[in-house]
Amino acid sequence: MKYFNLPTQINKFDDFKSFAEAFSIGEKDLVLTHQFLYDPYMKALNLKSDFVMQEQFGAGEPSDEMVDKIHETVKAKPYDRVIAVGGGTVIDIAKLLIFKDVTNTLDMFEGNIKLIKDKELIIVPTTCGTGSEVTNLSIVEVKSKHTKMGLAMDELYANHAVLIPELLKGLPYNFFIFSAIDALIHAIESYVSPKANEFTQMISMRAIDTLMKGFMAIVENGPDHRQELLEDFILASNFAGIAFGNAGVGAVHALSYPLGAAFHVPHGEANYQFFTEVFKVYNKKNPNGKIDPLNAALASILGVAKEEVYNAIEKVLDNLLSKKPLKEYGMKEAEIQGFTTSVIEKQQRLLANNYVPLSEDEILNIYKRLF
Ligand SMILES: [Fe+2]
Could you read off the pLDDT of 62-91 as tens digits, one per residue? Predict the structure, then answer.
């Protein structure tokens, strides 16, 4: 039984310049990024690599159309390395640019072509949430099928993940908090996953400790205090990514996908709506399994009784950013059944990682309570 896997080398630098020098970024490199990151961190370095600005190929979450257009632009040049500098969208797209002679994204997702990796992949995350720099997964919306599809294969592991805390500096408060809440959910869902083991739990727990203490410090000292914690948050997000890359995430992610897809709610924000409610149900169903040491650790961090941890987490997170009833996103009461059915039908890959199984009724009632 495979116990733990991390084929990606983790690197850390104080600034982008040191990374560019150490990795000798040059002519054979393709850098996928955004103009708002290029201008402050890369422009002055006069690097010889080619730069592609993701936003020129479409807005919002990654789609196959975006990836196809980028393939069209870059296919003429034989790059040695693809370097992603950005958040989840940039990273998910970059993961699909590393294969030989591929220009059609749908072919990749439907398994119509043999995928041969012929470029190294280097990922430099600029949010503190996805953990995608250390997972083997890329998720994009396939426009023609009106759905998100995921590609999971070992080739999608980056050769290098590069952590540069200063790149989080310009991240607006909302993006920072929502991405960090996503990281906390990665850590907590992976901790109680049936696939969790001593390695993943040790890493999950470290991420939980750092993120919760960081959130509490931001509540106490105000939003600007996050600038003092950039290194803590980028490391914790990476830890959480390593843990969930091995142990998986479950119902919180599963229940959030229909909301994200129907109303274009960003991933971290959508997850946040379901997080504590799912864990309250888990805790009620079985307080004595892997959730017990988790609750004890959270109680100690938060300074509350074990029974109170999920209410206490809600309070801390609510002081950072408020949750919203689902109807405020545009959801209709009549959609509750449809969302539930879609979770049961399409998200079994994630539901398999639940701490305890959730019935259709239990999922339906979570949507009802949050509506
Ligand atoms: Fe996530």
Answer: 999 999 999 999 988 999 999 999 999 999
Cα 241 to averaged position of ligand 1 atoms, centre (Å): 9
Q: Cα(69) to centroid of ligand 1, in Å?
A: 26
Q: What is the pLDDT of residues 10-67, one digit of tens each?
A: 999 999 999 999 999 999 999 999 999 999 999 999 999 999 999 999 988 899 999 9
Q: How far is the CA of 132 from the centre of ligand 1 (A)?
A: 9
Do 9-167 and 172-370 agree at the fold level? no
What CATH number should be reported for the domain whose range is 172-370?
1.20.1090.10
Distance separating alpha carbons of residues 328 and 346, to the nearest angstrom: 24
pLDDT in tens, 127-148: 999 999 999 999 988 888 777 7
Q: Which DSSP symbol is given to 6?
A: -
Rounded to the nearest angstrom, the distance between the alpha carbon of 6 and the centre of ligand 1 is: 18
pTM of the model: 0.96
Question: Ligand 1 centre from 111 Cα, in Å?
Answer: 25
- Report whether pLDDT(249) > 80: yes
**Order of strands, sheet of 9-12, starting from the edge strand that comes earlier in the sequence:** 9-12, 160-163, 120-125, 81-86, 29-33, 50-53
Residue 185 CA, ligand 1 centroid: distance in Å: 7
Q: Where are the domains of the chain?
A: 9-167, 172-370
Of the options 3.40.50.1970, 3.30.70.3400, 3.40.190.10, 3.40.50.2300, the CATH number for the domain spanning 9-167: 3.40.50.1970
What does the alpha-carbon distance between residue 179 and residue 175 come to, in Å, rounded to a whole number?
A: 6
What is the whole-number distance in angstroms between the Cα of residue 75 and the centre of ligand 1?
A: 31
Q: How far is the CA of 125 from the centre of ligand 1 (A)?
A: 14
Residue pLDDT, tens place only, 342-360: 999 989 999 999 999 999 9
Q: How far is the CA of 31 from the centre of ligand 1 (A)?
A: 24
Residues 236 and 245: their CA atoms lie apart, in Å, by: 14
SS3 label, residue 29: strand
